[in-house]
Amino acid sequence: MGQVATGELSADEAATRLRHLPFEDMGFARVDHHRALRCGFPEVIFGLGKTPEQIVEIFARLADSGANVLATRVSRDAAEKTRQRFLQAEYHELSSCLTLRQKDEPKSGGFVAVAAAGTSDLPVAEEARITADIMGQRTKTFYDVGVAGIHRLLAESHALQSARVVIVVAGMEGALPSVVGGLVDTPVIAVPTSVGYGASFGGLSALLTMMNSCAAGVSVVNIDNGFGAGYQAALINRVLERAQSRSNEDHAV
Amino acid sequence: MGQVATGELSADEAATRLRHLPFEDMGFARVDHHRALRCGFPEVIFGLGKTPEQIVEIFARLADSGANVLATRVSRDAAEKTRQRFLQAEYHELSSCLTLRQKDEPKSGGFVAVAAAGTSDLPVAEEARITADIMGQRTKTFYDVGVAGIHRLLAESHALQSARVVIVVAGMEGALPSVVGGLVDTPVIAVPTSVGYGASFGGLSALLTMMNSCAAGVSVVNIDNGFGAGYQAALINRVLERAQSRSNEDHAV
Amino acid sequence: MGQVATGELSADEAATRLRHLPFEDMGFARVDHHRALRCGFPEVIFGLGKTPEQIVEIFARLADSGANVLATRVSRDAAEKTRQRFLQAEYHELSSCLTLRQKDEPKSGGFVAVAAAGTSDLPVAEEARITADIMGQRTKTFYDVGVAGIHRLLAESHALQSARVVIVVAGMEGALPSVVGGLVDTPVIAVPTSVGYGASFGGLSALLTMMNSCAAGVSVVNIDNGFGAGYQAALINRVLERAQSRSNEDHAV
Amino acid sequence: MGQVATGELSADEAATRLRHLPFEDMGFARVDHHRALRCGFPEVIFGLGKTPEQIVEIFARLADSGANVLATRVSRDAAEKTRQRFLQAEYHELSSCLTLRQKDEPKSGGFVAVAAAGTSDLPVAEEARITADIMGQRTKTFYDVGVAGIHRLLAESHALQSARVVIVVAGMEGALPSVVGGLVDTPVIAVPTSVGYGASFGGLSALLTMMNSCAAGVSVVNIDNGFGAGYQAALINRVLERAQSRSNEDHAV
Amino acid sequence: MGQVATGELSADEAATRLRHLPFEDMGFARVDHHRALRCGFPEVIFGLGKTPEQIVEIFARLADSGANVLATRVSRDAAEKTRQRFLQAEYHELSSCLTLRQKDEPKSGGFVAVAAAGTSDLPVAEEARITADIMGQRTKTFYDVGVAGIHRLLAESHALQSARVVIVVAGMEGALPSVVGGLVDTPVIAVPTSVGYGASFGGLSALLTMMNSCAAGVSVVNIDNGFGAGYQAALINRVLERAQSRSNEDHAV
Amino acid sequence: MGQVATGELSADEAATRLRHLPFEDMGFARVDHHRALRCGFPEVIFGLGKTPEQIVEIFARLADSGANVLATRVSRDAAEKTRQRFLQAEYHELSSCLTLRQKDEPKSGGFVAVAAAGTSDLPVAEEARITADIMGQRTKTFYDVGVAGIHRLLAESHALQSARVVIVVAGMEGALPSVVGGLVDTPVIAVPTSVGYGASFGGLSALLTMMNSCAAGVSVVNIDNGFGAGYQAALINRVLERAQSRSNEDHAV
Amino acid sequence: MGQVATGELSADEAATRLRHLPFEDMGFARVDHHRALRCGFPEVIFGLGKTPEQIVEIFARLADSGANVLATRVSRDAAEKTRQRFLQAEYHELSSCLTLRQKDEPKSGGFVAVAAAGTSDLPVAEEARITADIMGQRTKTFYDVGVAGIHRLLAESHALQSARVVIVVAGMEGALPSVVGGLVDTPVIAVPTSVGYGASFGGLSALLTMMNSCAAGVSVVNIDNGFGAGYQAALINRVLERAQSRSNEDHAV
Amino acid sequence: MGQVATGELSADEAATRLRHLPFEDMGFARVDHHRALRCGFPEVIFGLGKTPEQIVEIFARLADSGANVLATRVSRDAAEKTRQRFLQAEYHELSSCLTLRQKDEPKSGGFVAVAAAGTSDLPVAEEARITADIMGQRTKTFYDVGVAGIHRLLAESHALQSARVVIVVAGMEGALPSVVGGLVDTPVIAVPTSVGYGASFGGLSALLTMMNSCAAGVSVVNIDNGFGAGYQAALINRVLERAQSRSNEDHAV
After folding, report:
1. How much is the pTM?
2. Inter-chain CB proximity H29 and F119 less than 8 Å
3. Which residues of D132-160 are buried (b: 16+ CB within 10 A; e: fewer)?
4. What mean pLDDT value characterizes chain A?
5. Which of B74, B100, B126 is the last residue before a domain boundary?
């Protein structure tokens, strides 16, 4: 809500707008068309637990606005149904993401690094990458760099240090974010995955590990929540872009 | 490691430096003097489980470098002992933080917002604020704005939207970050606290709430880890500052 | 047991009746025909883990009394079998409820509000609504009003404040009841749902959130227990109706 | 917010008022003076984790309004300090409640029953009773009626059936609410307590028992949360009183 | 090992026998033929996780001894395969038990009561009943006597008090054993079941309830372990039978 | 309730008596004087969470009846106060039990074995032994026979096999009951203790071990609940004694 | 890295090599060819969550080196596909292991014992045995020696005492390692399995038991992690072999 | 039991000896004097939960044999009392260990490495070191080498690779063993510590991390169980020493 931040809109008007924020009541859902303004990106469809029909319907409402559309956790069936109506929509099988790119946002200057500990963590890592990508971020991936073969990570430490934000995806013991957090001076967003067995308890072990990281600068999102990590990485970089653009404007003046 | 990022140092040299990074072996601790270069801020003393003597000793080593020093979870007794040697050191009773400000870093342009749900969450919120502050951030506090009296939060929504990063501290059910996350377009760092009783299970309830936040753009640190939140908020803003300063240099050319 | 409450029946007789309360032994179940008198509504069939044949059989016994019949968690198969015998029975697919309305109880004066945070919470919300409805309550629904887009809830705050009881259904972080509890002066019955993934642990996260609500006036039922919430909401309103009818009688005298 | 409910105030005005709701910023707390209007009772002080000075201060602000004041979980020390300033304030040692009765609200017609399973559950039961009492309810207590000696409960079944709401307090296995729920046709609010040892896990066992109650009409509040139960019981009865008073007015016309 | 108990066998010989106890190595299993002597009943086949072929094979070895054979958790498929070889073997569908009765042990004088809270608990209750039965006990069942309709239980209290041991099977909140334990003066063996949903956590809730029972004289076996309860009930009664038979012999002399 | 069991009392009369069972209301407690008749032993005082005054008071009421009195978890202070009034009361320091022996019940023929894995388990083991003893059982103890030195247990296997019931007390991994259960043909009552550290989680580890025992014939009571185990052991033996005495009477006729 | 250990390689060179350790980037995986040198055995394929195609591909890369290849948790389908390309590869159905033996390492002098409590634990035990075997160890198996029939274990105590390392596999209560640990003077590696039901919580119960073992000399790997146990047993024996071979060389000189 | 392993003693005699293994019954404890023969080291005193008097008494019995004595978790008070009787006993304050060195066992050829992640982990690490030391091992310590400053660990990788066994002690997220496990080819014994706060849950987080380690060759002992790790490390090396000595004897022949 840049306008508010730069003082162009009084607090009173802001409060009044909040009360009258537009949303579209579809019976089973209230599509929050205002979200792009308020939170910096249109609503994203969380596909789990929605019927293919509901997904197609909400997808259509969001596409109408002309913005890029992202749906996560979409079954192949729902994706097929949606793509019958939106031929340009792309289904990313590994991560179960469905995207529709309707406008090409200018990519930001820096990049978001997405590191994954093992091959099995890729679906979650890809969800993070695709989310950051459709929100206008450049991304680089660093896959299969788990701590049990630390040299594979060290070989990439230079590249990781160049990123503006690092997303680290790891299952099992989830130790990777702590090591990465000690190598870089940028924010690290850790994503525990449900990869593992036995005492991994569906990702709980990795989650606790990341929560207790002795490396400062690490924050954590939900188990398997690649979307949340990609989203926050984009937000972080957006603050940067916006501040820079203002800075440039100042110089332009 | 800005030098690496801007290509002034070859990857090879970077790797070699990593092997030879300096640390000081004190017997019971290895003080990581290189950390300021690598991670953007000198090592911070975690006081819990260290004797007053150990704290004084490590504090002294870190102070020798001329940098600002931060120690968290310091008992009043350890603080007294340290202040006998460092008269300018300041003890923040509410948050049990001990700080020594030896150089005044230029404050960044934007500010970090620190919101707390209730009065009992203040020790953790203050730890976050002090951490961000000593790392060169401007901060604003929004205390006692819990969701059960939502008008107190809405009254501040304008101000929160102006922040570059928002730290949200909450115990009990920990619902505040979800509401804030839906109001702003900046990253939200959520800090669950151990405030509560019964089924709060020492902060676990608030932690799970925040992990499951339906608001995108929210990441979480450990229970009562105000330091971690303040630290990451500063990191986020630092990326911004560094990028801006480069941007300015470009314009200057 | 209104008779007892108004003193028409001595305590002794009440105790004696308890010993002789009628139930019908079906071998695999003891149908509690007395329940309508004792608890204000006939026994409700919990379909989970019962065979279609058992459900049909118990349904028939309850229908014989001429009362309205409610069965929850009924599979489509069991519903079909029951409807072959009871043509007027209605199957509510979304909530897996099966109802037979045999008498139209006069609707109460006020209404029960049923609010749901997200689209995926609707099966549970509908179970609550249908339960309250068949127990003679007027109901209004407020669906997809989760806290991440707080304006959707605020837009309905007026309507919610008019309800006599508010049922709030939410999964994931389950924060909605706390916010609603701070907006209304009526009892709030919170229903956590198993909607979510990762650290939602099958609804445990939402359950703990609601348990720790900082808003007074919120009580909680089991995960996905829409029935329990609808039932208690009806009980609350019944106390009211009964008291009012007595009050009216007093005035009539 | 009866005014809204009876239509005397337009929805627009209600929304505007929400934005301008009064609260008093004390630095460490924002006292919500509007709460009495919005939620039906003034803010209640939760004493745990507040200094005696903070408690006295907030107590004073709330007392200024002339309303009855309730503070829970107040240490004897904080109570002494408060009573030096408010001589009429009463400290209830067993339940650690501190009350100041400044106006005598007319007691409601029905009564709230407070049942407790064992002697050790009394502190929590008393917190519930005192809360309901100061909110204008008549109360009756049924202490030490646990299920292992079921005749003690049955001897009181008549009396329990006369209540408008029944609060049931139990630790250890927490089975009492299920039995009571099967005996009465009024809402039952269950309060698990932390009484027990070993596998009671601080009240978790009793909490789970109550959550899974096979008796419909039972809802649950947090472990040891007598206040929450008393508060909701009062809310339930208030809805009743308000409806009755309206009903009476109708007759009066 | 009655012989030892009556002193017919020296401790030395007993120890030596332990070393030479017979078992039959089948490669995948070591059938403990000595068990009937040592523990009072031949080994019982736990069918879960064994192939039909393995079950048939072990069943055959045990049947060879001429004793009664019991296999629990046997799939219908494995049961069919076994019955092709043992025509008299009986498959109990509800409880998935397979029995072969080869000798008719004289029934004991008293009886084992098996009480179950709800219809869904019957598979576990039946496993208990069948186990006790094949171990030579007379049994009586009391099904669907859950605490929410306490009169159904009270109506049977006389009969329950006549039992020598009472097995109480209950899922959901698992409160029944506490109530029964307060009504009888015989040992109560409680069996939690996995019947329930949400916060029942697969029977954990019922298990904790029973563990924390305020009724003395209640001990607990594993979730869904009807076999264990039936087995211990039989052991208890066997001690009795053996002691009585000795007593009779004394009188005979 | 032998009378009922032998048919001297009609079911009707039994039910009527239940309603009129005597208890004494002391305000904070309802002393269940009828319990000795109904459950075979007078009420036992659970001292935890009761004031010394309350304990003395209840102790006195129970002593008045002339029966033996048992109070568990009694602090030394409360014990002193009680003994000032009851000089013959005996305080068992190790187990915190307080007993008053007013009549010498004839000891039963067999004995209850109490086995404990380690020295630290003795307080719980002693609570079990004292409980069984005051309920008229002969007891034998087998202390420090944990499984890590299996020969210490095997050396006692002869003696254990002679017991009528075996109570097995163990902390840490709690493996002892499984081994004992495989050595004897009598019921085993397992008592997990909170002895241990780290992953013992206050006895949870031992509790789960015992729950999952592969040895049939093992049932479990709450963590540290020596009383419960002793009580049930006595109940088991009482059934036996009563049956024997009847058997003897039959012979006498 | 024997070379380092014997001083043939300077520390500097070692560090340099770490940076340049070879791995092969396959897009979805980075095959760590250096691992055999660094950790004593080539990388092992963890089949769970990998597609058959990925498994075949990685298998081929590892086979190229001429070393023995091990893949665990391989589905029958993936095994078939791999064996089409590697005819000599062997699929072990019970344990889902796939092995390719390309060179016959000389077997070590001692042997690794693999003990399993029950028949259902065999898949995990076999995974341990096959892993140790392909890493060049002689193995002996002791299956179905659970503690409930302790004589079956005692009969093998002589043989177990001859092993160099003992792997103990057990589900349900997991008590076997404690008993074995008290019988032998060699390291015991305990493997909890997910065998069980109810309160075994997927192996958690067995895991906790083993963690709390009162027998010193027992360490634990993850639930169902037969591979990890076999691997560590081989490592232990390798240290031995290497030391012995050096010792022999010394004698040879 | 080297004798058995080398065949000097028949299996029969071994079994007989097991039955007659000596232990000394002290009433509260059975001192297992045979343990040194059977398990390779005399019994160790676990001080927690024992009175100073009991510790002194058991210490004396063990010292009588002339062997080295180790007591862990000994309070300063108990240590003082013991040292009054055994002047040469040494109290290690940091680790609360008490040792009496009565004979100097020849140190083994290799060494046991003890690595600790942070300063607060030192008490546990020292318990491990002292245990290994008194059992005749040479040890080297590597303290404060946690993963957040990975260069501190890499600087020691050469030295760690020379060890025969590596004990890795870590609290908080417990990631160190995974990294070490990927650097060395020797067995790694991981010890989680209770160091941490919030979501470390008393060491549970570190325990789970280590359980789920992606590095093969890592096994785990209980939280804070430095003793167990030191003990197993010594066992591993003992196997080695014994094998070597035999190898030497063979060469000597």
Report:
1. 0.88
2. yes
3. bbbbbbebbebbbbbbbbbbbbbbbbbbb
4. 83
5. B100
